[in-house]
Amino acid sequence: MFQSLVCTDTTRRRHCNGPYAVERDRYLQHCADCGATLITLRMKSNELLWAARLLPPGAPQGVGMEELLEMVRKRTSIHKGRTTGQRLIDIARPWLRYLRWWRELKAEIPFQSQLDRYVTWMRDERGFSASTIVQWQRQIGAFLQWYAASGRQLSDLRASDLDHYLASGAERWSRISVSNNAKALRVFLRHAATQGACDPRLSAAVRSPRIYDQESLPFAPAWSDVQRILADTLTSRRRDVRDRAILMLLAIYGMRSGEVASLQLDHVDWRQRVIRVFRLKRREPQIYPLIASVAEALARYIDTVRPKSLHREIFLGLQSPQRPLTGGAMHNVVSRRFLALGVQVAHHGPHALRHACAARLIADGLSLKEIGDHLGHRSTSATSIYAKVNLASLREVGDFDLGDL
Questions:
Q1: Confidence check: pLDDT of 333 > 50
Q2: In this structure, are 152 and 175 located in the same domain?
Q3: Does 364 map to a domain?
Q4: Distance CA 372, CA 363 (A)
Q5: Both 243 and 362 in a single domain?
Q6: Does residue 287 contact residue 274 with C-beta atoms inside 8 Å?
Q7: Which residues are marked as active site?
Q8: Do residue 302 and residue 245 come from a single domain?
């Protein structure tokens, strides 16, 4: 890699003969494969040479933040630039992580072994989705952190403790968040009881607020607002080209953000003009016809904007190194468009476009079964939320003249 980055023989020899040359070269090749530009690679190579010279003895056994800050102190004593120290941290730490030499500072979580067994059970025995595992692990970790302040063992946990925890959370959580935390607690306590860690009656003692079916209104933007958002992406800017493809998948196919993020290059069959989507709730793939406008947006992004990458996911970040977009990044893509155009809607995330898709299908006269199939629902009860407010039908009722009856 050094051969293509440096211009003079003297500089090339300095890089090749410096400490950990093989490790530096391997990492730079990895960054190049991920889409790093030539300028970025040259900057990384210079900083990595400094980092390699400043690494303490025994670096392959682990380098922590304390050692890295000492390296920064030595580096800034030679060059006192305003960004010198932070640049060394930003470049050296990912290199050390790549080599698995970085020693992460792990927060001490009480009852860690119990939490680890719970996560393993969710993944290996129950087959929960990755997003559910991450969410429930975070929620139960927060509960265990809170309970540890009492200084008692899990076997001493009482129902009053659970009530107190959920009541304290209600001050900053919505009713739905309290209900979700209560659900996660019930499942955790059932599992912990099978391990003999707590009283088996505790799971039944978890109380949560009543959540009524369809108690909230749909939060779909008007279809005219969706059209405005899509029209705003009709430019040649790289971000607009990428975002247009994302927005069309969300609004036209009603995909969830995770489904768009997990979409891969081989999921689009250009010859057969179909797109294969793995529906997260159904846990199965679903095939859709690839309509012309979406095909055009996807092809333009893949051909002109998407960098060459080892990642198979279609949508990548624009900044080097380009990594696949996450569900959170999808939220930023959509929210940024809503706010820029001043679209007034309760929620600015990708799910608002899914609601808009459903509302438009209802307005076009499709049945709940047809809409549920299009959205990847497992039952029509999940689709009925979108039929609660059908303003066109209400206007028809309001137009009846009952005077002659």
A1: yes
A2: yes
A3: yes
A4: 14
A5: yes
A6: yes
A7: 256, 281, 351, 354, 377, 386
A8: yes
SS3 content of the chain, % helix, strand, coil (to 5): 60, 5, 35
Tokens of 21: 């040359």
pLDDT digits (tens, 9 = 90+) for 268-327: 999 999 999 887 666 778 888 898 999 999 999 999 999 888 889 999 988 766 889 988
Could you report how far apart the first and last alpha carbons of the chain are, in Å? 87
Kindly report whether the global pTM for this prediction surpasses the value 0.70.
Answer: no
CA 201 to chain centroid, in Å, comes to 36
36-49: per-residue pLDDT in tens?
778 888 889 999 99
Q: DSSP string covering 121-143, please?
A: IIIIII---HHHHHHHHHHHHHH
Q: Alpha carbon of 191 to those of 112, 197, 204: distances in Å?
A: 15, 9, 13
What does the buried/exposed string (b/e) look like for 1-25 if buried means 16 or more CB atoms within 10 Å of the residue's CB? bbeebbeeeeeeeebeebebeebbb
Q: Which amino acid type is present at position 236? A: S
Of 179, 205, 231, at which residue does a domain stop? 205
Distance CA 119, CA 122 (A): 5
